[in-house]
Design brief:
Strand content: 15-25%
Number of helices: 10
Distance between the termini: 9 Å
Number of domains: 1
Bound molecules: guanosine-5'-triphosphate, magnesium ion
Strand order of the largest sheet: 3-2-4-1-5-6-7
CATH superfamily: P-loop containing nucleotide triphosphate hydrolases
Order of helices and strands: EHEEHHHEHHEHEHHEH
Number of strands: 7
CATH architecture: 3-Layer(aba) Sandwich
Amino acid sequence: MPLPLNLAVLGTAGSGKTTLIRAFGRWMERELGRRVAFINLDPGVERLPFRPSFDLRRHFTVRGLMRRYGLGPNGAMVRASQLLERGAGRFAGEIRKVEAEVRLLDTPGQLEVFLFHGGGRLLSLLDGTTLSLFLLEARTVLDPAGLTLARLLSLSVQLRLGVPTLCVVNKVDQLGGGLEEVLREDLPRLEGIPGMEAELAGRLSSLLREFLPPARLVGVSAKRGEGMERLHDLVQEVFCACGDLT
Ligand SMILES: Nc1nc2c(ncn2[C@@H]2O[C@H](COP(=O)(O)OP(=O)(O)OP(=O)(O)O)[C@@H](O)[C@H]2O)c(=O)[nH]1
Ligand SMILES: [Mg+2]
């Protein structure tokens, strides 16, 4: 049995992580005959559209922590992340027992809590190769400042997790088109951005493009199941570049 590919899907709240995981997982099963496992690392989710082979909610839930400690949803999520960090070794051990060619890992919408607490540690303890997909909504990248921010966030995730990260733009069905041109633009369109911000966006943008070229960005519609093949091709490319294709 070859070592598994772990794909951790992170992203802004409501960007469609859970929907994408279902769509991409089903697509890989159907089109490629892959053995896919779903892993839920979101202790706050109420309902999942797939059956997880590992579910963090079996250990604790945001709702349970709110009740037990009298916390609000964000306080409970911070508490959950501390528990995730503390139990990372044990949880990673359970996930390592999940046999699959591809493990898809769903994460909470409170991205920063997952990133800065236990999430990174857990991912570093998995077997096989781990990549992350950073997901955000198409309408947030339609202007140069938005696209710069998207690259910045995506690279922050990569820096923090220490694994190759692809930037996935979801909900392209909500746009009338034009995303491809935005993603492939060589230089940011700076007109309309005031003085200092324009300079900052310009400089950041050229720097970020060195580390995250346009080819590392892909547009999908998780809801319609569109763009799955391109996403897979890109994942495969990065996976092979990791030198771990066994
Ligand atoms: N139009 C459109 N809506 C989508 C798409 N993907 C997800 N959605 C919708 O966006 C909402 C949030 O989707 P989820 O998959 O729950 O998003 P999430 O990132 O897992 O949310 P959190 O875990 O709460 O951060 C739902 O209403 C989805 O139906 C898409 O490609 N297009
Ligand atoms: Mg979700």
